[in-house]
Write the structure tokens for this entry.
Amino acid sequence: MASPEPPVTRQVAPENVPPTSPSLVELPTGKPYRPVEVAELLRANLTPIVLLAGSAKCGKTTLLASLHDNFERAPSFAGYLSAGSRTLMGFAERCFDARAASGGDTPTTQRTIRAAGLLFYHLALRNEDLRTPIKHLLIADMSGEFYETAMNSAAEMRKQTIIRRADHFVHLIDGDRLTNDEFRSLTRANASLLFRRCFEEHMFEPDSKIDVLLTKWDIAIARCGTESKAQDVLKAVRDEITKQMEGKVARLRIEAIAARPHYRSKLRPAYGLIDFFRSWVEEPPRMSEPSVQRFPRVDVDGMFDRFAFRELPEMFEGPANV
Amino acid sequence: MSKLVAIGLPEAGKTTFLAALWHETESEEVKESLRLEKISDEATHLNNIRAEWLSFKPVTRTVQGQEQPVSLWFRNEQAVIGEVSFPDLSGEEFRQAWKERHWATEYDQLIGNAKGLLLFIHPNGVKEPMSIADVQRLAEAACPEGIEPDDNKAILRDSEKVVEATEEWDPLKAPTQVMLVELLQFVRRRTRIQFPIRLAVIISAWDIVKKEHGAKYSGEFGAQSWLKNRLPYLEQYLKTNPEFLVVRIYGVSAQGGDLNVDRAALKGFENASERILIEGSDCAPHDISEPIRWCLDLR
């Protein structure tokens, strides 16, 4: 196989992991990372974080599994090749329930249970032309229960610091429920409430990038009868969310997707996902710091206050006047 | 001493390859092949597997815990190459490493110091990532009677179905290509030598592929095309990590055919080495030592 560029020779040291017993050498678990475990990867590489958030069973884990599945089933996906993963066991487990090997008769995906909390999955990717270095992507899968708790409690929302840190906040809305008369109003209200809570708790910055994905679009079309009727639903949601968010974040995209469409659907696997995936990989991570809460300027003339105004003007509201 | 290591999952063809290699290099039946400079001090295992190979018997595969140290003294037409360590490792160890996330210290030493690797894949042992949707599609094509004619109704019916309990997840049910990529990632983490490492991917029982697909996978890049179609995830990994691995892919049939079906034809060769089939870059007919030459950086 031809190499795309001259290989770089370097000396490497074996991973310094103590053996479990004198006769065994421990190997990486391959399981998804917990929040405390991703720091090393984030420091070592400019790795964007994509946060998948949404109610239970809205399709977050299916989206995650289908991304990996596309690399396993085709020579490339979205113009990228897989260069490996540090969470391969996690992906294999997530993909399992939609595979014939699971013995099931309906494709499904194990949901992320609350106890699992927030899990990070890693992808190493290289552009098909092989001219650019390997890129890394971390996809954070937040359990639906966390999402619901955050909607109910400002304190819980503030704990979800990953929302501030994420380079792409991806809110998944269940397209099936959105087109079902029984659940439509509740689904729309919850989506709106989440964004409102995020804004009120300053979880988004002006440079935040928000993607709203209406999942299970194959079912939505089937429920509406035709694609054009389903598009009307999409338009209504788009108008509503755009009105709520316009001008408050750097970018807002709202589209329909079907990560793993039904085999009788005319939609192709990963329908609607390719452009999103490409941008998640290609756009550099956000470099901005979260905004700092400033102290109100008070009319004082103490020595220490004057010193603070002069040395740390960025800590106070209003122009520096010392 | 140069160290090569054969890796792969169980029954991937590692020991049969070694038996044919031992015979060919010792017998000098193939002109272009590497030759044996001298017989190793301890050659019981090699002679046993060679005897099975020459008698058209399936070569006894290596059992975990009973791995044999093997070293071969090679030379080519120009000079002595030296001793090449080629331990016959059990594929079960690698499969267990995927599941249990550890491997024996002895394996770690061998893999960590290997100058080159041979990764064996048997076409009939590949577990593909077949989805339930694939199976449903095939089932409908086979038995079209009784299916719901309206696509929308079929989609809605399935979406409302209560999903029945499926088999429990077991890492050993993962697709072959995922396990092999992880195996290579383990090697990357544990290796102690300079990158890049030379890797020869051996698609064994190549006669099966040739019989099934005819000319579709012929010639120098036939094995590479097969890999791309059957194990795309592994093929992507090999292509995207040239800093770590420099790769060549070979189709090899060490037995030359099916021992039950083709036995008479295989017996008809004057020289036993002539039954060996190999395709890939720089391969002379029947020269099963070419992947070794590549791994030893003699190309």
Chain A touches chain B through 76 residues (CB under 8 Å). The longest helix of chain A spans residues 227-245.
